[in-house]
Design a protein that fits this description.
This protein is of the alpha/beta class and 449 residues long. The protein contains 17 helices and 18 strands. Strand 12, helix 9 (262-271) and strand 13 (275-278) form a beta-alpha-beta unit. Helix 4 packs across helix 15 (401-409). The two termini are 33 Å apart.
Length: 449
C-alpha cells in the first residue's frame, strides 16, 4: 500500500497526475474490518449491552474485489463508526449475512458480495484509485467522500426518489466491501467531492448521519422543516442529533435539544441552541421499572416542560431515532397536525404509543431512511460551504475499530467517532487553509478544543 500512500502524498502537492494514479499497481489484498459468518451466534443468550464488538470485529487481510461497470475502487484515508456498524458487530436485529446472500442472487456481478466475511463501514474519505467501464464523472486521483446509498436503478420505482428503488441498500451494511478498510468498492454515483477545508477524518465523519438528518428534517420527503418550527431533537449532541441541531438552527427553526448530561448540554448551547432539556437532571421515567408499561404522566410532564421553554407552544416536528424508549412521549408532545419523523431505533425497534393522541389530533408519523443522491449531495454541499460542520469528537486507528464501535454501542461518545484507515495520523488532507481558519472553532467543537 506504500505506493498508494506515496501517490496520495504527491497528489496533495500537485506532483501526481490522474494518469499516475491510474497506473498504480493495486495490491491483491488489503486490510479491512470484518465480521465472520461462522460467528453470528457468538453472543447468543447475552443482553444487547453485554455484546462486545471487540470480540466480533476482526482487522485482517481480504482479497481485493473485482471492479465492475459503474464502480470505483477508493483508497480509504479515514472512515467513521455508525450505529449500523454496531448492529452488524453484535448481529442485531439480524445478521447482515442474510443481506449479502440476497444481494448475491441479484446478478452475476453481485455474487462478489456473498462471502463468509463482511467488510463493514458506511463512511469514507479518500482518493479514487480506479474506475470501471462507463464511469466518466470521476477520475483516478480525485479526492472524494462517499455516501452510503447503493441502488441498481433498473426499476421505474426508484427514478423519482432513489430511496424507493426495490434494490436500495446501505453500502457497508447491506453490501460488502465497506469503508472501514484500506480500500473500498463503491458505485461511482456514491462519490461526492471532499470538502477542501477538512482533514480526512473530519471529511469522513458526516456522511451517513449528515445526509440522514438532512432528509429526515429538511427534505420534502420527510420533515419539511420551515422557519419558526419548534423541533424536538432527541440525543441532540449525538451522531444524528448533532446534525439535526445544526439544521434546525441553520434553517431558522427552534430546536428543543434533549441531552443526557451537562457536558452535552454545553455542546448544543455552544452551537446556539437556547432550549435544552437535560435528561439526567429531570429524570424522565417513560417506562416502569420492568420496561413493560409506559407512564403517560411522564409524557405530560415532558409536554409541560417543553411549553415552559417555548412560551406555551407545542412541538411541530419531533426528530425521532431512539425508538422504543421515547416514541410514546414523542407522539404525545407533538402539536395537533404536527409530525413525528422517525429513523432507526437505537433503544428498540418495537415502538408503542397511544393512538388516540395521533389519530384524534391528526398527527403524522413519517418514516425516513438515509437519503437519495440529490439529498446526499445537498447535505455534503452545505459541509463544503461551511454552513454545517463535522461533529467529530475522537479518532481511533483501524486496528482499534472494535473499541471505537464499543464506545458508540455504550454511548460513551460525543458526535461522531472517526477511524484512521490509510491516513498515518490525524490532521492531514486539508486543501483550503483559509476557509478552515474561518471555521476552526466550529470544526473542533465536539473535540472540546
Amino acid at each position: 500500500m506504500q505506493n498508494i500512500l506515496d501517490a496520495i502524498s504527491a497528489g496533495q502537492t500537485g506532483d501526481a497526475t490522474s494518469e499516475d494514479f491510474a497506473n498504480l499497481q493495486l495490491p491483491e489484498s488489503y486490510r479491512a474490518a470484518t465480521v465472520h459468518k461462522d460467528e453470528v451466534d457468538m453472543f447468543e443468550g447475552l443482553a444487547s449491552r453485554d455484546k462486545d464488538p471487540r470480540k466480533s470485529l476482526h482487522v485482517e487481510e481480504v482479497a481485493l474485489p473485482e471492479l465492475g461497470p459503474g464502480e470505483a475502487l477508493v483508497a480509504v484515508m479515514a472512515s467513521a463508526i455508525n450505529y449500523n456498524t454496531v448492529w452488524t458487530s453484535i448481529f442485531e436485529p439480524v445478521s447482515t449475512f442474510g443481506f449479502l446472500e440476497r444481494y448475491g442472487r441479484v446478478s452475476e456481478l453481485t455474487k462478489r458480495h456473498d462471502l463468509p466475511y463482511h467488510v463493514v463501514g458506511s463512511d469514507l474519505a479518500g482518493v479514487v484509485l480506479k474506475t470501471g467501464p462507463g464511469v466518466t464523472a470521476w477520475k483516478p486521483g480525485a479526492e472524494v467522500v462517499a455516501h452510503c446509498l447503493s441502488v441498481e436503478l433498473e426499476d421505474p420505482a426508484g427514478h423519482d426518489d432513489s430511496m424507493m428503488d426495490p434494490q436500495q441498500r446501505i453500502w457497508g451494511f447491506e453490501t460488502n466491501f465497506g469503508g472501514l478498510a484500506h480500500i473500498a468498492l463503491v458505485k461511482s454515483n456514491q462519490l461526492l467531492a471532499k470538502p477542501a477545508h477538512l482533514t480526512w477524518e473530519e471529511a469522513a465523519s458526516p456522511g451517513l448521519v449528515n445526509a440522514t438528518a438532512y432528509r429526515q428534517l429538511v427534505s420534502k420527503n420527510a420533515g419539511q422543516m420551515k422557519q419558526g418550527d419548534n423541533v424536538l431533537i432527541w440525543g441532540a449532541s449525538g451522531g444524528l442529533g448533532g446534525f439535526a441541531t445544526q439544521y434546525a438552527l441553520n434553517g431558522g427553526a427552534n430546536p428543543i435539544c434533549v441531552v443526557s448530561n451537562e457536558e452535552k448540554a454545553k455542546i448544543v448551547r455552544s452551537m446556539g441552541a437556547e432550549m435544552v432539556i437535560n435528561r439526567s437532571e429531570e429524570n424522565w421515567q417513560f417506562w416502569n421499572e420492568d420496561n413493560t408499561r409506559q407512564n403517560p404522566k411522564e409524557w405530560q410532564r415532558l409536554g409541560k416542560r417543553i411549553r415552559e421553554l417555548t412560551g406555551g407552544e407545542d412541538i411541530d416536528i419531533v426528530f425521532e431515532h431512539p425508538g422504543r424508549e421515547t416514541f410514546g412521549a414523542s407522539v404525545y408532545v407533538t402539536r395537533k397536525g404536527g409530525t413525528i419523523t422517525t429513523c432507526a431505533s437505537t433503544t428498540g425497534f418495537m415502538h408503542e404509543y397511544d393512538n388516540r393522541y395521533l389519530w384524534m389530533n391528526l398527527k403524522r408519523i413519517v418514516s425516513s431512511h438515509f437519503a437519495n443522491y440529490r439529498e446526499a449531495y445537498e447535505a455534503n454541499r452545505l459541509i463544503a460551504q461551511g454552513k454545517i460542520h463535522p461533529t467529530l469528537s475522537k479518532t481511533y486507528n483501524l486496528e482499534d475499530v472494535g473499541q471505537a464501535a464499543l464506545d458508540v454501542h455504550h454511548n460513551k461518545h460525543q458526535g461522531k467517532v472517526g477511524v484512521l484507515c490509510l491516513a498515518p495520523e490525524e490532521g492531514l488532507g486539508v486543501r483550503d487553509t483559509e476557509m478552515r481558519a474561518k471555521h476552526e472553532t466550529e470544526i473542533n467543537r465536539f473535540r472540546g478544543v
